[in-house]
Please model this.
Amino acid sequence: MYVLFFFPLSLYFQTGGLFWKVETGRRDGRISLSKEIDANLPFSNFNITQLKQNFASKGLTKKDLVVLSGAHTIGSASCFTINTRLYNFTGRSDTDPALDPTFASELKKKCKPGGILPVFELDQGSSTISDAQFYKAVRQNRGLLISDAALLDDHATRAYVKRQSKSAAGATFGRDFGKSMEKMGRIGVLTGSEGEIRQRCAFVN
Ligand code: HEM
Ligand SMILES: *[C@@H]1O[C@H](CO)[C@@H](O)[C@H](O)[C@H]1NC(C)=O
Ligand SMILES: *[C@@H]1O[C@H](CO)[C@@H](O)[C@H](O)[C@H]1NC(C)=O
Model:
């Protein structure tokens, strides 16, 4: 049984439309613990090895990694998140050499050492549209997060970035994204009498 889910729900028509099928009947837990975050979620300073390991631990491939990172075609990241990358990359008041120098100085004008705001578009100039601009930015060393830039450090993920960045809509990005989202929806499903099927996705019953 499937329902169709639009991403992000209210923005579907404005963003140009990523969508996928969501399997119904998923059993989820009733408790969220902040102390479980570190062992499960990837962080923005992860290198390619850490990213691949983190995804593999959830049954996701490096194809899923590069495809799902394409979610960063939408939204923003804060000055706080990129501060170390701009000002203290290796702990010697340096900037990440993988970041385009012109872009780095533009960011530094608005994002001061130790600063928290403003936020920056994850794919500059196109953060409200789901397209291949994210992959273009990454290819030009203008990916905002260390984890975005890291997609150039593996042969296969790099090839994918290049391929998608060649056409405006992303050669196969839309289709790939739907598939990987459906796969992500199958992570850690509870079985038997564990947990519950939620009446509303974001709330326990
Ligand atoms: C590959 C590993 C990933 C890492 C390390 C990562 C990390 C981050 C970080 C640090 C931010 C910015 C937070 C801030 O400064 O406010 C962000 C934003 C965002 N991420 Fe990811 N992310 C990853 C994968 C994903 C995936 C798989 C999705 C969804 C399929 C996703 C969707 C988003 C969206 C939509 C935003 C923008 C949020 C907003 O504008 O408020 N990310 N991500
Ligand atoms: C990635 O980070 C881990 C942990 O800090 C480190 O052991 C590893 O050498 C790094 N790998 C690459 C390819 O940079
Ligand atoms: C830069 O990083 C080093 C090593 O992690 C740390 O000792 C130092 O305090 C940091 N500098 C600033 C300004 O945060």
Notes: Strands lie at 2-7, 18-23, 27-28, 76-78, 119-121, 196-197. The two ends are 21 Å apart (CA to CA). The pocket of 2-acetamido-2-deoxy-beta-D-glucopyranose (ligand 3) is lined by residues 88, 91 (CB under 6 Å). DSSP finds nine helices and six strands in the chain.
